[in-house]
């Protein structure tokens, strides 16, 4: 994973300073509300135009066979734009059901949206101890934070790390639990980068807002490990 994190346009990335009116958990709820709003706008406002454009291009190709070749690229661009819009929409919205825990929900989302296609064929993904994580009585705020952090970290691996192996693991101990996302990709110097990366900053803020501890360790050409720690 590299430091180039992702964030959703329009979503506040800085949690409020602690005060009497707005807590960090309330900040995270506001972030989620903004993301849900963005997902709705994509579905209601953007996708209809993309589907209309795809239909118009298909009609032009049928009515003007001589334009079929010239329109192949625009058709491809519209199809790609529709797929990107779907991915953004699906990523912005929370899953309807988190009852099986955030790791199970993250796995379902990532395998259906992110971990598919030709660009991830060489990536071996292992999920460890997911059944155990599903048995935890999750606090809603912590479940949302873990879900978002896992999805963000895995997306970064797919997009930037050039990794061959990725492991998402759940571990427990008497002192608490941990969720780790580890890859063997290009890595980076975590001491110099983690403070300036927007994606890493947002993951850390989500963890802190939920009362969790966030850690990222990376080294050039030695991969990256993101870990979230929680109390029992």
UniProtKB/TrEMBL annotation:
Region listing for Disordered, in residue ranges: 1-23
UniProt KW Transferase keyword: yes
InterPro entries tied to this protein: HATPase_C_sf (IPR036890), HATPase_dom (IPR003594), Sensor_HK_TwoCompSys (IPR050482)
Domain Histidine kinase/HSP90-like ATPase: 143-228
Pfam family, one: HATPase_c
Entry keyword Transferase: yes
The organism's place on the tree of life at top rank: Bacteria
Record-level Gene Ontology MF annotations: protein histidine kinase activity
Enzyme Commission identifier(s): 2.7.13.3
Keywords from the named record: Kinase, Transferase, Two-component regulatory system
Reactions the enzyme catalyzes: ATP + protein L-histidine = ADP + protein N-phospho-L-histidine
GO biological process, one term: phosphorelay signal transduction system
Protein name: histidine kinase
Organism: Rhodopirellula islandica
Source species taxonomy: Bacteria, Pseudomonadati, Planctomycetota, Planctomycetia, Pirellulales
């Amino acid at each position: 994973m590299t430091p180039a994190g992702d964030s959703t346009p329009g979503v506040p990335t800085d949690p409020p300073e602690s005060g009497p009116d707005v807590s960090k958990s309330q900040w995270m709820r506001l972030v989620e509300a903004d993301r849900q709003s963005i997902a709705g706008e994509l579905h209601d406002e953007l996708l209809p135009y993309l589907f209309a454009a795809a239909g118009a291009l298909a009609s032009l190709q049928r009515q003007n066979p001589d334009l079929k070749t010239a329109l192949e690229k625009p058709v491809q661009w519209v199809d790609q734009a529709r797929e990107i819009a779907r991915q953004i929409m699906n990523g912005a919205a929370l899953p309807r059901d988190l009852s099986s825990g955030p790791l199970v929900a993250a796995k379902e989302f990532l395998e259906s949206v992110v971990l598919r296609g030709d660009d991830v064929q060489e990536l071996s993904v292992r999920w460890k101890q997911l059944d155990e994580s599903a048995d935890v009585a999750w606090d809603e705020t912590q479940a949302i934070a873990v879900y978002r952090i896992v999805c963000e970290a895995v997306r970064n691996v797919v997009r930037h790390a050039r990794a061959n192996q990725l492991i998402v693991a759940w571990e427990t101990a008497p002192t608490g639990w941990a969720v780790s996302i580890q890859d063997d990709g290009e890595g980076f110097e975590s001491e110099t980068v983690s403070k300036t990366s927007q994606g890493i900053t947002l993951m850390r803020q989500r963890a802190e807002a939920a009362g969790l501890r966030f850690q990222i360790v990376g080294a050039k050409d030695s991969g990256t490990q993101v870990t979230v720690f929680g109390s029992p």
